[in-house]
Specification:
The chain has a single domain, classed as 2-Layer Sandwich (Alpha-Beta Plaits), CATH 3.30.70.20. The protein contains 5 helices and 8 strands. The strands form 4 sheets. Strands 1-8 form a two-stranded antiparallel sheet. Strands 2-3 form a two-stranded antiparallel sheet. It is globular.
């Protein structure tokens, strides 16, 4: 399986929170933005919304910071996950993530982050504006380059 990523087109995001609710419902059994693995940053006055989720870093600082090896990266898919059964709740991965994508569930006592829902991200499935797309890394990068080129040329 080639590496895939959740590509965000913030111009399409309306801030509805469907992605957050789908994520928390699938993973935690409740609709809760605080238990979601994707978070929509909203600036109502400025009129923008930006969904943010794990970047699946090539060299994840969250993984390096975990003292018990609970954070792992799948060499084939590139997906970085946290094993609940090994997590000791120290929050070192949460502190280490430079993007704030790792989080902590105080009720369960474990850290959590996006796991791409095993290859079928539900945030993408429930994004009715198509602000989120799950695409192969090379396609995602090509789309981003096209977007930048169009912006620079005004086409």
């Amino acid at each position: 399986m080639s590496e895939r990523m959740v590509l965000v087109d913030f111009h399409r995001c309306v801030g509805c929170g469907s992605c957050e609710m789908a994520c928390s419902l699938v993973h935690e059994g409740v609709c809760s933005a605080t238990l979601s693995r994707i978070h929509v940053m909203r600036r109502v006055g400025a009129g923008w919304n930006v969904p943010l989720t794990c970047a699946m870093c090539e060299r994840p600082l969250c993984m390096a910071a975990c003292p018990v090896g609970a954070v792992e990266k799948d060499p084939r898919s590139g997906v970085v996950t946290i094993a609940d059964e090994r997590c000791i709740g120290c929050r070192q991965c949460v502190q280490a993530c430079p993007f704030g994508h790792a989080d902590f569930n105080p009720q369960a006592g474990v850290a959590f982050k996006c796991d791409h829902c095993g290859g079928d991200p539900q945030c993408v499935a429930f994004c009715w504006t198509q602000a989120l797309v799950f695409a192969p890394l090379d396609e995602a990068l090509a789309a981003r380059r096209r977007e930048v080129a169009e912006r620079l040329t005004g086409l």
